[in-house]
Write a structure and sequence with these properties.
seven-stranded antiparallel beta sheet, six-stranded antiparallel beta sheet, 395 residues, alpha+beta
Length: 395
């Protein structure tokens, strides 16, 4: 479902997003350098091919392993974009550009937030949006909303088919898988599916937190929030942990999981980005990254577990913690929070931070594995995870 936050301030813009997708749908973080292209060149997106532009900007992307497009990202000019699924009264087209394709295309072609939003609108009107967006259910289709930001401004862009509305942000703005722009939302929102996404509950939580936020660390805390349920998620019978920003699956009608998280401090003298590059920010560590810098995070992860990629190594910690977050999170989150405070005060080089994060991940995973605690999850949640572990060959 996803949640995205922006805070527009005189000194710059803060941006944050949780990407919520299927539980085994590993997400890949990677840098793509700027490139020149020939006049007749085409670009193959997730489902369709479209004309390429003369030059594409360098982009740092967090994307589902099987998609061309990205859930969130930033470019060399300090533009950041995140998107959300939204449910409208218009049926999504059988094929077209996905919302994730539009995120990547906006970043590759827009040197400012306004330009990137215009790129998305132009491509939406020309090519439409459609095609399967789900991993477990490939035919799952939806429309998208976007938060587009740079160091000077931010815009909300909402869509329903090829129709759209845009609104410039003043102060705090959050989006959470529901249409919000006045007039457009009333005309196009599918009320039942929007209610089922629990987006209104999450949006209230993210907006309240963002209004109190002072900096990057506060946004990290918002993305980790399980709402008022305590240390771990509160599992609704139908929607699991969908009513809080840090989403966990386990409902009869919803299986979304936060699979990657991103926070950015966009300033005119340069942008700072912080990513988990793993699922579940409640168990993850935000590490500094830079646009223009490639990182070795191991082999490209897929939906089958491997012992080497960062995403799947972290899953061994994350899935053990879910058995009893109240008892297991305190085994390492104090140290994690102290490391993040140190890094926020004086960011290390990304490669150094990821190396330290790897060492800490191994230590925390061992500590959690050694703890003998009862499984506190409802039985339906245990069944959900047993099936996903089997599908991923995760022992």
């Amino acid at each position: 479902m996803c949640d995205t936050i922006v805070i527009v301030r005189p000194e710059g813009v803060l941006f944050a997003k949780n990407s919520d997708r299927d539980a085994n749908e590993a997400q890949l973080l990677g840098w793509r350098p700027p490139r020149e292209h020939s006049p007749a060149e085409k670009v193959r997106c997730t489902w369709i091919e479209i004309p390429q532009v003369e030059r594409t900007h360098g982009v740092l992307l967090s994307r589902p392993f099987w998609m061309w497009g990205a859930e969130m990202g930033a470019n060399q000019h300090g533009v950041a974009i995140g998107n959300e699924a939204v449910f409208t009264t218009r049926a999504p087209e059988e094929t077209g550009l996905t919302g994730m394709d539009l995120v990547r295309l906006g970043l590759e072609r827009g040197a400012s937030a306004r330009q990137a939003a215009d790129v998305i609108v132009e491509l939406l009107e020309r090519h439409g949006q459609g095609g399967g967006c789900g991993h477990e259910q490939r035919g799952f289709r939806y429309h998208s909303s976007f938060l587009v930001a740079d160091p000077r401004a931010a815009f909300v862009l909402e869509t329903a088919g090829r129709e759209w509305a845009v609104e410039e942000v003043s102060g705090v703005r959050t989006i959470s898988s529901g249409l919000t722009i006045e007039g457009f939302a009333e005309r196009h929102s599918d009320r039942i599916k929007t209610w089922g996404s629990r987006c209104r509950i999450r949006q209230r939580l993210t907006e309240d937190g963002a209004r109190r936020a002072q900096g990057v660390g506060d946004l990290m805390a918002i993305l980790r929030s399980h709402g008022e349920g305590g240390a771990g998620p509160a599992y609704d019978l139908l929607t699991g942990g969908l009513a809080a920003p840090c989403v966990h699956p386990g409902g009869l009608a919803a299986g979304s999981q936060t699979t990657a998280s991103w926070v950015a401090d966009l300033r005119r003298d340069g942008a700072r980005h912080w990513v988990t590059a793993t699922a579940a920010p409640c168990t993850g560590l935000f590490k500094p990254v830079r646009s223009g810098e490639a990182l070795d995070l191991g082999p490209t992860p897929t939906d089958v577990a491997d012992p080497v990629s960062l995403w799947w190594r972290h899953e061994r910690l994350h899935r053990r913690v879910l058995r009893n977050p109240g008892l297991l999170l305190p085994l390492f989150t104090g140290e994690r929070d102290e490391v993040e405070r140190r890094w926020l005060a004086s960011p290390p080089a990304p490669a150094e931070a990821f190396a330290e994060g790897d060492r800490l991940l191994a230590e925390w995973t061992a500590a959690v594995a050694a703890a003998e605690v009862p499984d506190a999850r409802p039985m339906r949640v245990r069944r959900f995870w047993r099936r996903r572990d089997r599908l991923a060959n995760l022992s």
